[in-house]
Specification:
Blueprint (H helix, E strand, L loop, with lengths): L1 H25 L11 H17 L11 E4 L2 E12 L3 E9 L9 E5 L11 H7 L4 E7 L14 H15 L3 E6 L3 H13 L8 E5 L11 H8 L2 H7 L2 E2 L10 E3 L1 H11 L1 H17 L2 H14 L5 E2 H13 L2 H4 L3 E2 L2 E2 L9 E7 L13 H4 L8 E6 L11 H17 L5
Parallel strand pairs: 4-5, 4-6, 6-7, 7-13, 13-14
Antiparallel strand pairs: 1-2, 2-3, 3-5, 8-9, 9-10, 11-12
Helix pairs in contact: 1-2, 2-9, 3-14, 4-5, 4-11, 9-10
Length: 411
């Protein structure tokens, strides 16, 4: 019912959105005298913001066309190299490859947390300079037919293991936020099995390894309500108009509304600033706003099984740090990790995964030698700044790349 109400609301706004778009274009053309007046500019700006905030957004593209390495431009070709029902493994192939270099294979595990993998566009753009980059591009659950079956946290771990086996030995992993837990679990399982395809190193960034440490508002929400509350209040069925009709999901629009509410003043202020930028003709600032919110407001649905299992395992039971996490009736033993190097990265102002939650990885991976460990805390950045933006490019990514190169077994 909840999803149907959302769809009806979107459909009801369609005529208003079309009118707003038409008015914005009419009042912005240089052939219209009103486009030169403050009143005309104000109405055009208001119409653009209304149309932009209410329109349907699909899966964005990465749009990474090329990269400069050692002064030479290399074309980037985005290709799917492994396709499963819920995930497509994408490679960012550099052509021609950098001469005389054997750059490490890097698997970036994107979060399945309401946004598409393109939220990590800035992460990929930086890492393709020094690595052969792959990324898990999770599919919108509303577009996966019910016949494909369920998808839960165990399946997520299976996907990571499957990608590692496909890529082969000496692959490195960079996990951003939520996948830190399943990546660490997959690493423990593969180390315990003495699997040759176990990752050479893992870098966990802003991840909820132990959410008992400095709990955030997100963490508190998960612990103050029973699992039944989430199942009864935020899980809904996909409407018949989509390919995944009748699949139970945690819809992306609910996740987006939750994140927007957490920092409502900030988002309102950003749109007010855009309104002023449009009136004043500041096209560059308005374009930056559009680019950010085009990505931020592009959301995907999560399979209900995965969402609920993650809530219980990660946020309510704290199963991984407590040593009680199970994968397909098998205990996940992080003390089995011996040959995989581990780096953790945190942001000082992270309001999603509090300080210390990711660093706790080192406390439960007791048999990783000191020479294979590293931790870095970036001052002055929040959750998003850990993997995007200037400090990511200038401060964090060089340290991550250096750690990966240090532990690259082919070096």
């Amino acid at each position: 019912m909840l999803y149907n109400i959302h769809e009806m609301q979107h459909a009801a706004l369609a005529p208003l959105r079309m009118m707003a778009t038409a008015n914005q274009r009419l009042l912005s053309t240089p052939f219209n005298p009103l486009s030169y007046t403050q009143g005309g500019k104000a109405i055009a700006a208001a119409c653009e913001i209304f149309a932009d905030t209410t329109k349907r957004r699909g899966h964005p593209g990465f749009f990474i066309k090329d990269v400069k390495i050692d002064g030479k431009t290399h074309k980037i070709t985005e290709e799917s190299v492994l396709d499963h029902a819920f995930c497509s493994l994408k490679r960012f192939h550099r052509s021609p490859g950098p001469a005389g270099r054997n750059d490490p294979k890097l698997l970036i595990v994107a979060p399945m947390s309401g946004h598409f993998a393109t939220l990590l566009r800035g992460t990929v753009q930086q890492m393709v300079h020094n690595h052969d980059v792959y990324i898990t591009d999770w599919r919108d659950a509303r577009d996966v037919p019910l016949a494909e079956g369920a998808f839960d946290l165990d399946d997520y771990i299976d996907e990571i293991i499957s990608c590692l086996k496909f890529l082969g030995p000496n692959t490195h992993i960079l996990a951003v936020c939520q996948p830190s837990v399943p990546v660490l679990a997959a690493t423990a399982i593969m180390n315990e099995d003495d699997d040759d395809c176990a990752p050479a190193s893992i870098t966990l960034m802003g991840g909820p390894i132990d959410t008992r440490i400095n709990p955030t508002e997100v963490n508190n929400l998960a612990t103050t309500k029973p699992l039944e509350w989430f199942e009864n209040n935020v899980i809904t069925q996909v409407p018949m108009i989509y390919e995944g009709a009748f699949r139970k999901v945690y819809p992306g629009f609910l996740q987006l509304s939750g994140f927007m509410t957490m920092n409502l003043d900030t988002h309102i202020g950003a749109h007010v600033n855009m309104y002023n930028h449009l009136i004043n003709g500041d096209g560059d600032s308005a374009a930056q706003h559009r680019a950010f919110y085009a990505e931020y407001m592009s959301v995907m649905d999560m399979p209900a099984e995965y969402y609920l299992q993650t809530i219980k395992t990660v946020f309510q039971d704290h199963a991984l740090p407590c040593g009680t996490m199970m994968w397909r009736d098998r205990k996940v033993d992080t003390s089995a990790i011996r040959k995989t190097a581990i780096m953790t990265v945190e942001g000082e102002l992270d309001d999603i995964s509090g300080i210390g939650q990711t660093k706790a990885t080192h406390d439960i991976c007791l048999n990783v030698s000191k020479s294979k460990r590293a931790h870095y805390e970036q001052k002055g950045v929040g959750h998003y700044g850990v993997f995007n933006g200037r400090r990511w490019r200038e401060k964090i990514s060089p340290k991550v790349s250096a750690f990966i190169l240090k532990h690259n077994q082919a070096t």
